[in-house]
Amino acid sequence: MEEVRALLLQFKPRSDALTHAIDDFLLDLMTLSFVVDCYGRGFELLARTLARRRLAKVRLLSGRVDTARQK
Description:
Layout: H1 2-8, H2 16-39, H3 44-62, H4 65-70
Helix pairs in contact: 2-3
């Protein structure tokens, strides 16, 4: 989680929408991490998919669409 927070600090908040997207991403990631830890690896693929979608939203709102496509 600390690595994720450090990476998200690279995004400079440009709007309320971006700030909310980052908050949503962090909250979802913490929740998904808890679910996977408690209920096992069966949820891992779903958790990764949701996390990637939330991160894509953050990248889109921050204007870093090109870097998201390269990865």
